[in-house]
Design goal:
By secondary structure, the protein is α+β, with helices and mostly antiparallel strands. About 50% of the residues lie in helices and about 15% in strands. Strands 3-5-4 form a 3-stranded antiparallel sheet. A two-stranded parallel sheet has the order 1-2. The radius of gyration is 20 Å and the shape is elongated.
Length: about 170
């Protein structure tokens, strides 16, 4: 729970450039180092607490080839899958954790392997070969993984130097 006078900032898209906070607490790990730099430069806090809760389980950050194949086979053999109501059942049936399933569906949607309309997913049988590593979701996930590893695995002294450099540049 935030203190009474605290202000929550979610992401940097709606960041007010005139925002001036003496004390900034960063709870979530940012999606990229550039996002963190933008935030720090805009706010210029006098006191900074860094928590950086991980947003991605680094033990299984990306779906395996086997997971991708299971989801694809299921999607093309079933029509009108209600993602809102049946996502957990689908994850259990495919024996894939929910976060991996959601990410896989995002990849497939971008690649054109599935169509989603009104929360209903339909597989799209495709003969074309698509490099999933070139999708925006995949590149974004890789950036998140790298950022999370850097921020959570850095030594405190190194992280301090780096943050100070962001603030004074």
């Amino acid at each position: 729970m935030l203190p009474k006078k605290a202000r929550a900032i979610v992401g940097t898209q709606r960041l007010d450039q005139t925002l001036n906070q003496n004390h900034l607490v960063l709870v979530d790990c940012p999606d990229s180092l550039a996002e963190l730099e933008k935030l720090l430069k805009a706010i210029q806090p006098q006191l900074l607490d860094l928590i950086f809760l991980p947003s991605i389980d680094l033990r299984r950050p990306l779906p395996s080839r086997k997971d991708l194949a299971k989801v694809y086979r299921f999607a093309v053999s079933h029509q009108q899958i209600n993602l809102k109501n049946d996502l957990m059942k689908l994850a259990e049936y495919l024996q894939i954790n929910k976060e991996t399933l959601i990410f896989t569906i995002q990849l497939f949607f971008e690649a054109g392997f599935v169509k989603i309309k009104n929360g209903l997913m339909t597989g799209n049988l495709s003969q074309k070969k698509v490099d999933l590593t070139q999708t925006a979701s995949y590149r974004s996930r890789i950036r998140q993984i790298k950022t999370q590893k850097i921020l959570n695995d850095s030594k405190t002294a190194d992280l301090k130097k780096w943050i100070i450099q962001f603030l004074i540049d």
